[in-house]
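Researcher: I'd like a structural prediction for the single chain below. Treat it as a standalone chain; there are no partners to consider.
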Amino acid sequence: MTVPTPPTPRGLRRVALASLVGTAIEWYDFFIYGTAAVLVFAPQFFPGSSDLAGTLAAFSTLAVGFLARPLGGALMGHFGDLVGRKSMLVLSLLLMGSATFAIGLLPTYADIGVWAPILLVVLRFLQGFGVGGEWGGAVLLAVENAPPGKRGFYGSFPQMGVPAGVILSNSVFLLILATVGKQGFIDWAWRLPFLGSIVLVAAGMLIRAKIGETPEFAETRDQGLRRNPLLTVVRDNPRQLLLAGGTFLANNAIGYVMIVYMLSYGTKTLKLSQNTMLTLVLIASAVWLVTLPAFSALSDRVGRRPVFLGGGLVLLAWSIPFFLLLDTKTIPLMVVAVVITALGLSATYGPQAALFAELFDADVRYSGASLGYQLGAIFGGGFAPFIAAWLQGTTGSSLWVGAYLTALSLISFVCITVLRGRERSTVEATPQLV
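Model: Treating it as a single chain, here is the predicted structure.
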């Protein structure tokens, strides 16, 4: 039997870089779609609709990506447990990059009629499928290579890919808007972020090609893998899967409301400029990026659940004040709104990688972690921008959106209070979950 060799310090740095860069590229691809859905897809792919109907239609295509994510997570998680983490990470990046590049070439409704939104939905589905398999593999790459006692910190690197992807995507949109103006952006320049992603994907592929399998996967492979890890984890771990998904509802919904819906709300309801709203998202994402590893490292010392619970309380208490401050249209107060939200997101997202890995045995861990994550994503962030837009449009009040997010925060808070790790997990779980 092969004895797994722990990675060297240089190897650890390479793993951390591969997990961060790869996920940042994947999330850049995923998020530029969300930003474009707010700024350009309604008139380009759903013309003739009312402003609200066009926005809802664009957000509906956004949700399609979330519907595909559990499928990608299930299938790639299954094969990631069978043939290895690395191959699925390469496949997910290739699939996401190809779909994103194709969106940049897509004809609009004026060019090919109803086929334009149909093809947009198909490509969004492929994006969702790719990113569905990305998270679990990137997380396990980091966590399973991490030294004992630092799994939370190393697990934060793929998590940082989310705010890094937001910063990269919004910075690109701000640069293009400043260069070509609003009309030039709507007419043609919106395609540039999608087409340019092919360069990032190529760089990510080169980085990931240099990494190997994790020591824990190598060990389970030598001992004999389960023939059907997906079926096994669903049959043996239904409670962990459902509770893991529940812990992620609030974080994902509030994150997408801030990243995607807030752009629409700020420009169409509050009548603020696109640059102002994109800048607010950038500020929130920068705070999220910087504080995320700090909360993750803290979870190595005090446990995952205490950090999660603290962040959950912030999200629970802040969902309604968040919109009250946005509604003032006073920039300093709006900055306060997004910064405090970002702190709550960091505390409930940073330790998540290690927490989800600690719930499942190594031979079903890719399947289990991916499914738990994507269940929370589809019922949390998948429909959040659509529901938020519908609530605001039908009631005329942002407080109903805040109430919706408060309800999800309560569900997530309850889930994390009852979630426990598995002592049989080969990842050191018990000392850190209690």
